[in-house]
Structures are given as structure tokens and as C-alpha cells.
Amino acid sequence: MYGFLSRDTRLPPFSVACLFALLLVCGACNNELSVTSYEVDKTLPPRVLVATVEVDGLVWFFKLSGASDGVAAHREDFHRFLDSVKFGKPGEATCPTPKGWDTSSRGMQGSFKRFKSLAIPTDTEILDVSVSFLRAPATGIDDEYLKTNLDRWRKQIKLGPISDKDGDDWKDVLSAISIDGVPGLLADITGSVNQHFTPPRPPASASTGPMTEPRFEYSVPDDWTDRGASAFVAQTWTVGENEDAVKISLSFAGGELEDNVNRWRDQVGLGEVASSQFESVEVDGQAGKLFDLVGESRRVIGIVVPQTRLSLFIKMTGPVDKVEGEQAEFMAFVQSLKLK
């Protein structure tokens, strides 16, 4: 048996009259109540851009986050915002609020409060922009520090941590930048639409469908060693051993074409360029771009095939002479590739 406490919850007549009068006054002041609602497409993966620089013993973080399409649309605005930043005394910086952006109270309270919080209104959501800093470690921004922060940001967008199996692939999301003349790094990470970790994948056959596990068909030479998948690649092979090894990989990722190509250029010791020459190729009937980047000792042959929301990257990297010797096999592999 259940017992209930009973009481009269009706408003007294005087309170009802006051409430009615208040509603009339509000209606006179504002003839129409405007309610803004946002419908976020949950099939779009989240994406974060995080710029990191060390200044006067502090590591500054400038972060843009939201759905992948919104972040892509405002990527250039974010870079212009970074260009406007000026550092002052330790722990001080001037970060002008761009036109069309709003100040925000998000993250401005608590033990790890932000230095500045901004919001970018869009038709479907409000993108979050944060500025914060932490005391720099004694070792500076080394690989372990970067991995720790990358894992933190990856967790926020439903990705798993970096593992030893990833090798140096985790560096593929990083590119060089400069803020107020201080060199730094920009991380560009696209997450998963799922609640549990899966690597970024291409969408289903319907353009509005959810992202699903990819299925490939391909033929590879007998001397390619299968290294499996990791958090950053859908499939990896190697040819040779140690420093002479050539690595071939398939992966899906976001980011702008120029940023990805400049990241490859950096991997072979070449400087950044506004645009790179490419050859047009077809992969399973889909148009792609082939980039052949030759450095002093290393070479990258990369093919980018745009998909609905992400791009397919087919890449071979290694010593110049070893890549040259494997080029014909690589192109035969590309021609055999079928996306299901």
C-alpha cells in the first residue's frame, strides 16, 4: 500500500489575477515571443580545431568545436581570430571578438575556467570557441604532452586514446601554425557519430545516412605485410624493415585539402605552399587528386578522394629510393581498390 500526502495546490484568486495581469503587461511590451531552436544533425561527426602555443612558461589553447560541417564553414574565421591574438604579460592576451561572434559564459566558472569564451551562432547549432592556458611542463610541449592533450580532446568527441599500435600516425592530425609570431601546432580531429569509439568512416550510400564501417575490396602484393587498423587508419601495410620500411595506409579524415598536403610536405622536409600541383586520378570511378612529394631523403605519394563528409586518403611514405621501387605496385593497388 502506498501513502500520499495531500495538499491544495490551487493558487488563491489574488495570485491568479496578478499572474494574468503580468502576462498582459509582457504581451504589451513584446507582441511576439521569439523562441530560437536548433536541430543538430546527429549523423554528422563532431570536429575540433585546437591551436597550441607556449608563451612565457604557459601553454595557450585556442579551441573551436562543433559539428563537422559547422567547423568547416567557420575554419577560416577561426584562423583570422588566431591572427588577431596578441600576447601581453604572462597570463594576458588580447583576443578581439570577431563580428558575428558572441561572448559566452560557458566554462568561465570552476577550477579550470577559461580565459575567454565565445560562441558562433549558426542555423543548426552554436559553435563553441574557448581560450585557456596551463602552466607549461618542464619538458615543454613534447610528444608525451601532445598525446595527453590529444587523448583529452579525442575523448570529448567519442574517440579512443592513442595507442602504441598507432606509431607516429597520431601526428597526422597536427600542422604547424604561428600566433603573434610564436610557432605552435594546430590539431584537427574529426570524431565519431557513435557513442563508442570507432575511427572516422565514410557515410552510408545515402548521402543523409549515418556513418558506417567501410568495406573494401583490393589486391595487394605478397610482400606487403598486413599491419591491421588503428585509431587513425582503416588499414596499414609495410614493405621492408626499420628505417627502410615503406608504409601504405588507407584512412578517412576531415580537414582542408591544403592543410593535409602541407602536413605531408612537412613530413618529407618541404615547406608549406598555398597550393600544390597534382595529377587527376580515379579510384573506383571516383575523382581523386594525386600528390607526389619528394624531400631530401623521404617521399610521400598521397591520393585524396573526397567523400560526402570526409575524404579517403591513400598514402605511401618512406625513403625516396624505396618508394620509387614500390610505386608501380602502389598504383596497381590503387586501381584494384573498390569501395563498398
Which terms would index this structure?
340 residues; 22% helix; alpha+beta; 2 domains; Protein Transport Mog1p, Chain A
Describe the structure.
The protein is α+β, with helices and mostly antiparallel strands and 340 residues long. The protein is 22% helix and 32% strand. The protein contains six helices and 18 strands. The strands form four sheets. The protein has a seven-stranded antiparallel β-sheet. It starts with 12 loop residues before the first helix and ends with a strand.
- String of helices and strands: HEEHHEEEEEHEEEEEEHEEEEHE
General form: globular
Derived from helix and strand composition plus strand pairing, the structural class reads alpha+beta
Strand order of the largest sheet: 5-6-7-2-1-9-8
Rg, Cα atoms, Å: 25 Å
- Tell me about the largest β-sheet: 7 strands, antiparallel
Number of domains as seen in the coordinates: 2
Question: Quick one: how many beta strands?
Answer: 18
Helix percentage: 10-25%
By DSSP (H or I, 4+ residues per run), the number of helices equals: 6
Average pLDDT: 79
Percent of residues in beta strands: 25-35%
Instruction: Give the low-confidence spans.
Output: 1-41, 194-213
Our measurement of the CA-to-CA distance between the termini, rounded to an integer number of angstroms, reads 60 Å
